[in-house]
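Same chain as my last thread, 187 residues:
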Amino acid sequence: MMKSWKESLAPLVMLMFTAALYRVMPGRIPGFAPHIAMALFGGAVLRDKRVAFALPILSLLFSDALYHVLYISGFSVIPGFYSGQLLNYLLIGSLTSIGFFIRRESPVQILAGSVAGTLIYFLLSNGWVWLVGGGWARPKTMAGLLQCYADGLPFLQTSLAGTLVFSAFLFGGLQLYGRYFSRRVTA
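reply #2:
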């Protein structure tokens, strides 16, 4: 485990900004984003839980601010700030707690956490959209809720793919870094 968040501040800040910049990249597949993986990674790796929770939230905030600047400038049709955004921050931040149960050396736990985090985010965020009448304002019936979930299935697929890819990158990168670093220290 990392000894102190201060020792890894620069790489974490770079990770946060890279994820935020990736999220606003033109042509990116909707839903294919690193923030769920970042939340899981922070929970599994960082000792300072405040930093673990802050990492994905600050990255989202930075990318939303970039989106908003692009939107105001006329370069994007996606506004950066919108109603209901606070819930999105809370959901992504709360997924960090799943990372607390992931052993960072266990591919099975990383895979299970990635799937669980993506499904929890999908169920809660789409349930919230249905509840407050967002999206296509589906009726407040069980059929309406199921239709709201069906509406979100394409995003679930790309979100799961993104979470799996970015989790493999983050956790795998950490393992490779650990192996490289330990060889350099012992050489």
